[in-house]
Design a protein that fits this description.
Chain lengths: 255, 248
């Protein structure tokens, strides 16, 4: 579990996050939602430690990231996997080498064992052996995301961060990625935090959702609470489109 | 502007402190090193050879045509060519040219890794990205620069010798006598020592600008330009300093 307490972050005097407190549970897909520029990515990068926060604490199962020395942060990061918005696969390495990279850096496995582990992770995300020796630029965006997930889970992380995993993907591929993240989270009991503004994602996998608006936590709950909540910020964000207004009306009629 | 300069120096120093630490994995470091030597060193041999030969040819022709004074010995052409290549051309001018080729390559490679979040991905994994990406480049270039400089000197002299062999402007014996006349072996060492410093400047400054690039493709291009310009300026400033220390 990751707990964030009273987090503040500003850039050049401009406050981006203000007094954000939240819990992110293990074995669940925790989502940070909000409009573009609301501070989602800053919150996520602050939780990971890529941004140094102004004040507040970030507890990884009781271990406070903000009090840690660089050496301890490096050790903690070996328990962390991350899926970036643009996949962030290494251009100069093949698909298999990308997945083997964390193992080569930090494990004491033999090359054969590393290859077996990497191939297992790739098969877990449904990547076919024929693509193992291709370069990232030679595979589709959806496949790149799946390879990035495989790379993120090679070291059996306890915490998984996904920054807009569906950006640039078609609805079908988005669903595949969402389901994959959900399955992996439940299978390995990982604390997963997904940063998204994709409504399909929210409705499919949002076991625990936090809405950020203008750098402040505006709402939290589950996907089932969305239809019954009268939170103005949530309703403005979720039911912005006519389609979702209709969905809400039909759900409420059935109830 | 002064504050900005100090800020940049501070950031550069911090980056170098992160770069010169023990690699997370020595095996990976020694795997990266030969790759960098090929990318930065071996791939630069061609341009060094071409530029040095042609410069050697042109300098020889120009020196002959502009020193028609009968009081000057005929072998002076070889002497001028040798000392120019040994003292300045092979080390300083060639390194300035390499700052353009290698420096922009390093800055754009690291810069595009930065903007595509590949460096962030490394950091998340717990990898010291500065050490992993920059240290092999610095070591490779510092190792390879003296080799490129030696190549340059040899090719420049070969170019000059070619002029003496294929034209009637100067005899081969006069040219060969000139390049051996009053030879000071320390000049070669001076050139090699300078190239070590220049290799470090090019690799570290270019890496610095690439590492702190942000934004998109345009910003990577800008980082690359800054890397080349600032490497060249620092190279020229350090050239004065090194010349003062070693020759004066």
């Amino acid at each position: 579990m990751i707990r964030v307490e009273n987090l503040y972050k500003s850039f050049d005097g401009k406050t981006v996050l203000s007094d954000v407190s939240a819990d992110f549970y293990s074995g669940k897909v925790n989502q940070i939602i909000g409009q573009s520029g609301s501070g989602k990515t800053v919150l996520m990068k602050s939780i990971i430690g890529l941004f140094q926060v102004d004040s507040g604490s970030i507890l990884y199962d009781g271990r406070n990231l903000t009090d840690m020395k660089m050496r301890d942060i490096k050790l903690l990061r070996r328990e962390v996997g991350m899926l970036f918005q643009g996949s962030a696969l290494f251009d100069s390495l093949t698909v298999l080498q990308n997945v083997m990279f964390p193992l080569e850096m930090f494990s004491t496995m033999t090359k054969k064992e590393m290859e077996e582990r990497a191939k297992f992770c790739l098969s877990r995300v449904n990547i076919q052996p024929v693509t193992y020796n291709l370069m990232p630029s030679e595979i589709s965006g959806g496949m790149q995301k799946r390879v990035a997930i495989a790379r993120a889970i090679t070291l059996n992380p306890r915490y998984l961060f996904c920054d807009e995993p569906n950006s640039g993907l078609d609805p079908v591929t988005s669903l595949v990625i969402d389901k994959l993240i959900e399955e992996i989270t439940e299978e390995y009991d990982i604390t997963t935090i997904v940063n998204t503004h994709d409504m399909n994602s929210i409705m499919e996998t949002g076991a625990h959702i936090i809405l950020i608006e203008k750098g402040v936590k505006a709402w939290d709950g589950s996907k089932d609470d969305i239809f019954t909540s009268d939170n103005v910020s949530l309703n403005n964000f979720v039911f912005a489109s006519d389609l979702f207004k209709l969905v809400k009306d039909s759900v409420n009629c059935k109830r | 502007m002064i504050v900005k300069a100090f800020n940049q120096i501070g950031r550069y120093s911090l980056l170098m402190r992160r770069t010169f630490t023990r690699p997370d994995n020595w095996r990976q470091f020694f795997k990266q090193l030969p790759k960098e030597m090929v990318k930065l060193g071996t791939n630069s041999i061609g341009i060094v050879v071409i530029i040095s030969i042609f410069t050697g040819v042109i300098m020889t022709v120009q020196t002959i045509q502009n020193t028609e004074n009968p009081l000057l010995p005929r072998y002076s052409t070889g002497l001028v060519l040798r000392d120019t290549f040994l003292l300045e051309f092979a080390s300083t001018i060639m390194c300035l040219l390499l700052a353009g080729k290698v420096g922009s390559f390093i800055a754009s490679e690291i810069g595009s890794m930065r903007v595509s979040e590949q460096i962030d991905a490394m950091e998340i994994m717990g990898v010291n990205s500065a050490n992993y990406l920059i240290l092999p480049k610095i070591v490779a270039l510092v190792f390879f620069m003296p080799i490129l400089v030696t190549f340059s000197i040899a090719c420049g002299l070969i170019g000059g010798a070619g002029v003496s062999y294929f034209t009637d402007l100067i005899t081969v014996s006069d040219f060969l006598y000139g390049i051996q006349y009053a030879y000071i072996p320390f000049y070669l060492w001076y050139s090699i020592i300078k190239s070590l410093f220049f290799g470090f400047i090019i690799a570290s400054v270019s890496s610095f600008y690439g590492y702190y690039a942000y934004g998109g493709a345009l910003d990577v291009g800008q980082a690359s330009t800054h890397a080349v310009v600032n490497s060249c300026v620092l190279l020229l400033l350090s050239n004065i300093l090194l010349t003062d220390i070693m020759l004066l």
